[in-house]
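Progress report, Aim 2. The chain analyzed during this reporting quarter is listed below.
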Amino acid sequence: MKDRSLAGWLEYIERQHPQSIALGLERVAEVFIALKIKISCPALTVGGTNGKGSTCAILESILRAGGYRTGMYSSPHLQRYNERVRIAGREVEDALLCEAFAAVESARGGVPLTYFEFGTLAAFFLLAREKVEAAILEVGLGGRLDAVNVLDADCAVLTSVGIDHVEYLGGTREEIGREKAGIFRSGRPAIVADPSPPGTVLNANTNLQLLGRDFGYQPQGTQWAYWGPLGKRSGLAYPALRGAVQLRNASAALAALDSLRERLPVAMQDVRRGLAEVYLPGRFQVLPGRPQVVLDVAHNPQAAAELAANLGDSGYAPETIAVFGMLKDKDIAGVVRAMAPRITRWHLANLRGPRGATAAQLAKILSGQGSTTPRTEYNSVAEAFAAAKKEARENDKIVVFGSFLTVADAYG
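Predicted structure tokens for the chain:
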């Protein structure tokens, strides 16, 4: 078993639980204890409907600029599973992941673990063994019952509360907020970057730090200012990640670092360098060359609205061609409503996997929303993307969105 390749391990762990998603901490906690995992450095947990990945990337970049040996766990990945675990800014190698999976397998003693739970425990095993100086952990789904929540973080960040994963988290912002606020710990800082958090979040912790009340941001032309409990910091460069919402994510990251300043001090030069060097593929990522190609993993109405706004702010194009694929259990109609005003042509693609929606299903939803915009159906994202690039003129835009899988398939 120790001789398995990474591909072999990933195929194996997919078969160890009858459900792909099974929320609950009992199984994970049992194996966590058996592994004797001890992460002694400061740990930051980041949850939310949207903005988690960007906030984690900003935290990692600033802390690395400050000289810390960081460990980051995030999900899902775009191209390689290795993207999920980063030590000192580098994706871990196959051999280390295989070693961690073997440790989890040895410790679990027959306890059934989902793919995500198995991977989370393997990541924690590596973060502990590699002796990182700061751990940044992205919550997978929800918060309260997510495997990442088995660890008591020193600071929790909640980026936003939107309607998504309703079959697991509830159908209202109040219900979803309750689940997401489950990452908070009594007496420890809880940073809330949602501009209008539901009551279940506001009542969840006595050490809340709220956007607009305890910290915030202010655009200043080509620069911006952050303010928080330690005062105001002006003249900051915009984060290298594109989109107006990134100021909110950056201010949440700075508020979190301020709350841990005694254990993780960073200088202003580290903040500036970290903001300038942060990188995260698939979040309003603009590829070089013409026509302009934008890749965005937006897969719920809130994220789609941000994408639409960013497209509106990024300059005029005669045509904006959508390469669109989604999972059928997502709010496809809500995403279409948010994006339709920006799209002049739709290239609809079958999305791979049992959860993938077909191009025909997407077309039916478009029609149901009253859209008469021209659309073409394709067997795959690759085919849709190739056709879009062939049709687009130099000044047009192509936007690839709807799922992590959609963006991954566009990479080829």
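The chain has a mean pLDDT of 94. Residues 323 and 400 are 5 Å apart (CA to CA). These observations will guide the mutagenesis work planned for the next reporting period.
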